[in-house]
Each structure stands twice: as C-alpha cells, then as structure tokens.
Amino acid sequence: MRRLTPLMVCFIALASAMAQSPQKSAAQTRLRALELEAAGLRRTLLGAAQSPDGPEAASPAGALLALQEGNERFVRGLRIRSQMGALDPGAREALAKGQAPFAVIITCSDSRLADNFIFDQELGRLFTIREAGNAPDLQGLASAEYAVEHLGSRIIVVLGHESCGAVKAVQEAGPTPLPGNLWSLQAAMAGLLDSVPRGGESAGAHLSHLVEANARRQAESVLARSPLLLERCAKGSLSVVPAVYDLATGKVRFLPAVVPGHGEKTGGHS
Ligand SMILES: [Zn+2]
C-alpha cells in the first residue's frame, strides 16, 4: 500500500473539512487555513526547519500570530501541523539535522497540557519548559536563554491554566509550609496571595484570579532574573507574554506582553 505523504494527508483533511461543514463560508475558511498550513508544511519538508524564513521566525508579532492561529485550529478541532509532524518520517529526518523553534513555552507539568497540540505545531517548532505552576527555576531560565540566544526563538509564552493544582495548593496552604519539597512552590509564588486578596468571591473564582496573576508575575520574573532576555526585549527582538489556558474549551487567552522596565520585580524563584 502506498504511503501517505503529508500533502496527501492534508488533502484528505481538507476534503473532510469541506464535506463536514454545513455552511459554505465555514468550509471556505477551513479550506484557506488548510491551504496555508499545507504551504507551511511544504517549507518544512524542504528543509526550512534548519533555516526558518517564515513570519513566525521574523518577529515577536509573527511568532505570536502563529501561536494564536494554531490555538484557533486546536479549539475548532482542525489541528494540522501537530498531526503532520508526528506522521511524517521525512520531517523527522530533516529535523534530526537541527532545530529552530520560534517559540519558548513555559508551562505547567499538568498532564492535560500539551503545547504541541494546544498551539497545533509540529516537532521542532516549540521549545518547552514544564514545571508545576509554570514557575521556572534557574535551569528553566537557562533553558529559555539558550533557546533565544542559540536557537533564535522570538517569543516566550508563560502559560498558566485554569484549575491549576500547584496554584491551588499554594492558595489552600496560605502561610502553612507545604510538605516535602512542595514548599518550593510557595517560594516560587512568594507574594502571589497578597497580590490577589480573596474578598467575598468563591474559592474557585479566587483561584482563577490567582492563576492569571501567577502567569503574569512569572513572566515578569523571567525578565527580572535574566539581563540577557531583558536586553532582547528592549531591542524588540523578543517578547515575553503571559497567557492562561482553559482546560475545557482549549482556548488560550493571551495577556499583554511584559513591558521591559515595568513591573518585572514580582514572583518567581529567587
Ligand atoms: Zn498546573
């Protein structure tokens, strides 16, 4: 049986999208998205992974747009890039020669988060750092610096998520030290509880506010602890963006990028 090439699989997905859509305009939108992704995949298979020239590699804005578009495909059940990369041996062989991830994703270890799916990106496109509570320690910070300095990444997304168990543990413990090494989560989120008073809201609503604040504070902390990354941001060649992932909808809500020199003195490991 003849092996399916990535473009053949893309064509099948395209035909499927058109057949399943009840409305012509929706089908046309999917068609256009699939065409664009087919073009992107073609570039990858021709070796662009080693010398990226797409808009996502050219600027922080281009990188952010690529992540936003990929998340939109994920939310709508129209993943393409993350399916292709896993299926095609040719892409893996090309990537074995080098990597040029356009984005660094700092996110939680939660098993329900998989950034290649969430942003619909194939192998070699995302440089991922995962620690509970999306609170990078020194090695995590060094990993981000490596990706930016040596691999050319244009954006760092600090991705928190709703119902985060790490943030919830810190919330519920309050001033009481958590057992084992879990105390380090409290250290990494020092000041978080004071920054978001609960007031009269429910524990669940408070947790949502804490999750968002933690993503923002950890993003600020990344710049506060890394002169290298701060310099790249000041020059405009890098952007550090906090975001929150909704487990149920799959939607990523991007928050305003951290502005160098403003507010990057909070949270994070010391
Ligand atoms: Zn979590």
UniProtKB/TrEMBL annotation:
Keywords: Lyase, Metal-binding, Signal, Zinc
Annotated positions binding Zn(2+): 108, 110, 161, 164
PROSITE patterns associated with the record: PROK_CO2_ANHYDRASE_2
Reactions mediated catalytically: hydrogencarbonate + H(+) = CO2 + H2O
Reported cofactor(s): Zn(2+)
Nucleotide-binding in keyword set: no
Domain of life: Bacteria
BP terms from Gene Ontology: carbon utilization
One Pfam family from the record: Pro_CA
Example of a GO MF term: carbonate dehydratase activity
Protein name, entry field: Carbonic anhydrase
Source organism of this protein record: Mesoterricola sediminis
Taxonomic classification: Bacteria, Pseudomonadati, Acidobacteriota, Holophagae, Holophagales
